[in-house]
Write a structure and sequence with these properties.
Length: 80
């Protein structure tokens, strides 16, 4: 699924809310090429995201992203 829109309209916020509703026991790999782990964590805290199975990866290199997917074997991958 592709979620598009202008910068700043809330795509990353919506994605975190979706991740929060994902089954808790399932791992999610959240890849961000623009925002740091601290920025994503701050947003997750403000949104009261409770899912602790979200694995964050700050990366833009597709080879490294593919490697992380193969290593972590997440049930859901978010590319933000």
């Amino acid at each position: 699924m592709l979620l598009g829109g202008e910068p700043g309209i809330g795509k990353s916020t919506l994605i975190l809310q979706i991740c929060d509703k994902f089954p808790i026991k399932e791992n999610i790999l959240y890849v961000s090429g623009e925002e740091s782990a601290e920025q994503i964590k701050g947003r997750a805290d403000r949104l009261k995201v409770k899912n602790e199975n979200i694995i964050f990866l700050g990366e833009t290199d597709i080879d490294n992203i593919e490697l992380a997917i193969n290593e972590k074997k997440p049930s859901l991958v978010v590319l933000d």
